[in-house]
Amino acid sequence: MKLIKESAPYIRRKADVKRMMLDVVIALSPITIFSCVMYGWSAIYVLLISIAIMLASEAVFVFLTNKPEYNGAKLTFKEKLKEAFSHYTINNFLAPLISAIIYSLIMPAGTSVWVVIVGALFGIVIGKLVFGGLGSNIFNPAALGRVVASICFELTPKSSRFVDIVAGGTPLAHVNGNIANISNYKLLDLLIGTVPGAMGEGGKIAIIVGGVYLLIRKSADIRAMLSTIITFAGLMLIAGLKVDSANAINIMLYQLLSGGLIFGAVFMVTDPVTSPTTKFGRILYGALVASIAVLVRLFGAFPEGVAFAILIMNMFVPVIDYYKWSSPKYNYKQFIALGVILLAIVVIILLAL
Amino acid sequence: MIGKTKKIEDIKTLTKYLPSVRYTDPDYVYISVTNARCATGEVYVKAGDKVLLGQVIGLRHGPFFEQPIHSTVSGEVEGIVKKFHRSGKLVDFIKIKNDKLDTYCDTIHERTPEEIKALTRDDFIKIVKDCALVGLGGSSFPTYIKFQTKDPIDTIIINGIECEPYVTSDYRLMMEYPDRIMRGIGYALQAFDAKKAIIAVKEKHQDIYEVLSAVAKRYPDLNIEVARVGNFYPQGWEIAMIKSATGIQIPSGVLPAKYGIMNFNVSTIVGLYKAVRYNMPVVKRNFTLTGDGIKFPQNFRVRVGTSIQELIEKCNGYSDDSDKIFILGGPMMGASLVRDDAVVSKTVTSVIVMNHKNWVEEPCVRCGSCVLSCPVGLKPVQIMNAYKAKDTDAIKGMNIKRCIECGLCTYSCTSKIPVTEFVRKAKKMV
To answer: Which positions in chain A touch B324 (Cβ < 8 Å)?
Structure first.
């Protein structure tokens, strides 16, 4: 028997990163199954390719970063492999798995194989591994992959089993430039998900089921999730009132239920690694993601802006967390700052629309 | 998982309901020459000297106070040996062979109620100083300095919360000696001329509440209230306790006395009772020996200076041959030792022996649990990152002095990172 020197405290609570990531995988499963059923093979291959690429990249990363100590003798490849394998943990499997699932769900089904591969590689390698892997990344790998793919290639949504693509494309393409043009799709269709778009954006009910599971398991922060959705709804309502006050509520619901807003709020804004650590920081982060998404949708050339908004805000996380102003407890100054920012965005919306 | 950790898995049930076993006559006792607060000390006796119980056998020198060292048994001095102190350091101990007669030194005498009634604040200060009474909850802060406060005190709060998991020595003390607690409170009320006293106990400890309420009725002239406060950790931290018991929020860095509040641990108040009534220093205390590394966890009433090795033998030794962690104090804030030849000093509440677990440390995913859990409103994860980057400006800018080292950041960490250790190192850096 040996007495071991440790530092206080000597006990830990029963919670770990593994469990948190497993919860995200479980929460993603309803929407994944939904899109696989809806799009069939054209969704499944996107999913499988993304998973294969991201897991393989992570495995290569583990191999390259865990070299055995040099002891004079030349090591065989097998020995190096063995050493690397001993450092391969469940985190090296679950984290890229989550990124891959999220990435494929925000891509349109039936995207060409090469586009999927380029986006996935860019997302995981430039978005995560060059920073040092799990916990060190600045950008959300899935959002980065998606944005690179959509800038470099033309992504066209595919007709699914239940819906033919209407001339003009996705629900958001119809309202790009004129948010009052909401007659092409019914709100109920948007809620159920029988509309064209990225393969995981459709089934809002499946996403919400996943989100509720995450919140029950406390594996996601409710503050970021709700602040994104509420700010988005509020700003869109104001925009709707300006454009067509009689239909403002419908315009707001149409915007809320189309595109990747709900999916982003549930699965991407809540990603702990790329979000701030304080309570208010998370509220601010969510609110700003929503604001930028609103601005991109209203005034940008792209019909969809959630992935852009998340990437832009990822860059601001260190600023939000900066020790001179971030405080772990709520105080009135923070809310005044948030109010001023939101007011400025409202003014921009009202003047520019 | 991502969220505030307030409650800690309570493992008091291992020993909570076991009555204290009296082990007050060890063959040898060991009295430390220095302690965590007093870096130097002198010894007045040499090997072969006969000493009496309560006799002053040395003097410890602290930064702003001096503290007499008392013998806790009568017998013969055998010399100086090296043993582990509660602070985790190897220090000199005076070894005394117990003659088991308990012959009192002539300074120990019983004061009559009339004599006690006539005592003034200055008399109390002198008694407490002569008896070397310190904060027995673990702080070991000299009690007489608390008595010297110039601020008017109207409420005395007795801390019976014992928020560390596993430890049950104060719990047993309150169950077994409620009468001494009440009398001690009576003396404290008299000394400070305070209006009322509040005993703070955990809400879930219904039994202590019943015992203390029933005994408090015997002292109708003392205004004693038993307050049941929350079950969370660190409820025993004085600022959290005062907030729960009285509703007063004391800002960090301000003494509670400024708000008319004086707080003592239950063990300290029993020490005060002994000091005032019999002029006796602390010679016995309640002690818990527990954890899954001990065969039969047990509460003890022990002589101060008893070797812990003897007590472990009384518990039938260690549970098995696997690696253990040996903790003096509680599992959240105690010190771990690499050898078990430690001694029960006045301020040691417990020893916990746990089977060693290898926590697998994962990368920080910035879940924010430590930030949400921190009771003093720090951002442990950022302090850790600033420490790793050797960014002293950032560490200074984050109010690190407020940290009470409660250990919640490590406890709540989803990645099993020893955050508290980084914060502790960062604290030393500025």
So the answer is: 1-4
pTM above 0.95?
A: no
CATH number corresponding to B113-278: 3.40.50.11540
The answer as to whether A11 is a domain residue is no
Q: Which regions of chain B carry the CATH code 3.40.50.11540?
A: 113-278
Can you give the three-state secondary structure of chain B, one letter per residue? CCCCCCCCCCCHHHCCCCCCEEECCCCEEEEECCCCCCCEEEECCCCCCEECECCEEEEEECCCCEEEEECCCCEEEEEEEEEECCCCCEEEEEEEEECCCCCECCCCCCCCHHHHHCCCHHHHHHHHHHCCCECCCCCCCEHHHHHCCCCCCCEEEEECCCCCCCCCHHHHHHHHCHHHHHHHHHHHHHHHCCCEEEEEEECCCHHHHHHHHHHHCCCCCCCEEEEEECCCCCCCCHHHHHHHHHCCCCCCCCCHHHHCEEEEEHHHHHHHHHHHHHCCCCCEEEEEEECCCECCCEEEEEECCCEHHHHHHHCCCECCCCCEEEEECCCCCCEEECCCCEECCCCCCEEEEEECCCCCCCCCCCCCHHHHHCCCCCCHHHHHHHHHCCCHHHHHHCCHHHCCCCCHHHHHCCCCCCHHHHHHHHHHHC
What is the complex's ipTM, to 2 decimals? Answer: 0.90
Q: What is the pLDDT of residues B367-412, one digit of tens each?
A: 999 999 999 989 999 999 999 999 999 999 888 988 999 999 999 9
| Min Cα–Cα distance to chain A from B87, Å | 12
Residue A4 in contact with partner chain B when CB distance is under 8 A: yes
Average pLDDT over residues A175-189: 80
Using a CB-CB distance cutoff of 8 angstroms, which residues of chain B are in contact with residue A14?
A: 9
